[in-house]
Amino acid sequence: MIGFGPVLVRLARDAHVDPSGSAFWRVTLALPILMIMTARGRAASVGLRPTWIAALAGFVFAGDLVCWHYGIRYTAIAKATVLSNMTPILVTAAAWFMLREAPKPVFLVGMLLGVGGSALMALAKGGAGVNPPLGDAFSAAAAVWYAIYILVVRHARQTMSASSLMLWSSVVGAPLLLLCALSLHERLIPDGTLGWTALVGLGVMHVAGQGSIAWALGRLPAPLAALVVLVQPVVAGLSAWAVFGERMTALQALGAGVALGGVALAQVVGRGSAPAPHAAPETP
Fold first, then answer.
1. What is the three-class DSSP state of 46?
2. Angle at CA 70, nearest 5°, toward 173 and 201?
3. In this predicted structure, what is the pLDDT of residue 284?
4. Rg of the Cα trace of the chain?
5. CA nearest 12: which of 258, 211, 210, 191?
6. Confidence at residue 275, expressed as pLDDT on a 0 to 100 scale
7. Which among 8, 12, 206, 263 could bridge 17 via Cys, Cβ 3.0 to 4.6 Å?
């Protein structure tokens, strides 16, 4: 689901919505759905109260979105998505030392294949973008923000349902993104129906895609969850090819195959790498 995000961000940009602005609409338009999901959930009495960990998740995710969306603006979609998803290395190291989630050797092989294949996709010549070095820098910064986000959500999911965590992190993130957009004098209102359609699509993707990641982090070790998300660059690259004509080269296609193979290998061996945390009750 989130693999389609970069294309929607680019479509919103074509409708004259700037990066922080599209990030603001992504979380804001998701709020009504998240409110309904949280209110209907079994843990509604807990979900209707904000927590500091959800606020931290919202702050970190806002930083991730701003950097990622600017990366998409300045470099090729596949490259921006790959670089911003270099989080498995950071998450695996942090989870090893902080959460005592020691990876199996074969998992490390899968991780290296997944990251290596994604790096090959990024380094192979493809769509260049308007300012690749700047876009690459933003995308790399997004990887750091996203690694922190995964670890925060992993911890939060021990006491919060996915829907309530998504709700409160979005409540915190939305005004931060709006403040960022206004301070940068960005355009917020799209031109035409296509622009609003792209923004609504981002909101739905936020609930279905990012919400699925939050749900999974309550049941999977953080390194495995971070690595499986490397499917996203492959989807983003293929969708950018289909929509914008950003053709994948033979090396990029090879990188996509290697990345998916690494994800599959890690998925097979990673289930027993660490005990899943106690997950909070979910929306039925």
1. helix
2. 60
3. 38
4. 18
5. 191
6. 44
7. 12
23-24-28 Cα angle (round to 5): 120
Residue 228: the pLDDT is 76
DSSP assignment letter at 4: G
- Tokens 């945390």 locate to 277
Amino acid letter, residue 23: A
Place of tokens 């294309």: 7
Assign 58 to helix, strand or coil.
helix
User: 259, 272, 277: which is closest to 106 by C-alpha?
Assistant: 272
What are the backbone dihedrals phi and psi of residue 276, each rounded to the nearest 5 degrees, phi first?
-70, 145
Q: Which residues are CB-neighbours of 37 under 8 A, at least 6 positions away?
A: 163, 167, 207, 283
Q: Which amino acid is at 103?
A: P
Contact 202, 170 (CB under 8 A): no
- pLDDT mean for each 10 residues of the chain (284 residues): 88 92 96 90 56 93 93 79 74 74 77 78 64 85 90 90 93 96 94 93 95 90 76 79 78 78 71 48 48
Q: Are 68 and 219 in contact (CB under 8 A)?
A: no
Total-model pTM: 0.81
- Rounded-to-integer distance, Cα 252 and Cα 138, Å: 21
What is the distance between the alpha carbons of residues 149 and 228, in angstroms, rounded to a whole number? 15
Backbone φ and ψ for 219, nearest 5 degrees, come out as: -135, -5
Which residue is listed with tokens 């927590």? 51
